[in-house]
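WARN retry 2 of 3 for item q-0093 after timeout on previous attempt; input resubmitted unchanged.
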Amino acid sequence: MMNPQLINTTRPDPHQRSGRSTVATQSLDGAPQVGCERTQNGLTDWIVVASSMSAAFDGALDDYIQHLRVERGLSKHTVDGYARDLVRFGARLADEQASLAEVDEARVAGYLVTLSQEGLSARTQARALSAIRGFFRFLVQERREERDPTELLEGPRLLHKLPDVLNRDEVLRLLRAPTGSKPNRIRDRAMLHTMYAAGLRVSELIELDLADVNLEEGFVSALGKGKKRRIVPIGAHARAAMVEYLAEVRPKWARPASRACFVTARGKAMTRQSFWSLVKKYARAAGIMKPISPHKLRHSFATHLLAGGADLRSVQTMLGHADISTTQIYTHVSGDHLRKMHERYHPRG
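OK item q-0093 returned
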């Protein structure tokens, strides 16, 4: 199976809507395979533009991506993930000259075997199956296909990898790393404190608007996955860091019409990549040698809450998890603490 590669070839597309242009892709033999549309505001919508692929797949995929973005309200990052998996599957169908109606259980299972043979992880295979399953469920609901070929398929068994977290000392060192009174240090201090205090995803942190921050009551309103909003307290330390930033830095940096809470010296909203770089920089300054990412602060937030005695349902609510089973993985991480508590307090410990 040939992997699609983006090239800088633009061509008209029958599904093109106003304000978009299609970037074609080609396989290694030069044949058009798949592509994506780029809107004028920089957002990306993925569609199939392969000449050898059926118009049915082309239109169905375009409509499904729009459904994910508009009706389900999924984030751009999530939608792009689904799109990449389905574009890859679409390229496989084009290679086999198979239509949507010819996709059955055996064909999907064979595709997953191919992914395994290419050395892709069980998690990647499971994600691919999830994307295909969601796509066909949508088509069945829309009465464009009669059945879902993935209905009886089971994904590869996944080993739940325990999240790697920072201990309390490492977190304190990281939070204290942005020292001094320089404007960027004040902002970075506020961002790190807020992310850890509220257990935010990096996308939730950088997308905070001023209206989402209530310092009088001491909470932030985070817009999470599926456009679901939740209220999370931030505590005294994060509140103090935010007060300093909002009073001394943001008024000098933000553009007049800007609603973003965290901005750069040029007045633009912070990006995921910029904040990722900051976290790594301050981790090195704090002497933290283990691999680190912004999400590790979120893992640490949950683990430290449970270790401190917080109940699972409260942590689930603060993290914004739809399913409590997602939160339960942190109970394994804090198992050492629970064992120590058992040994200390149980009469037969």
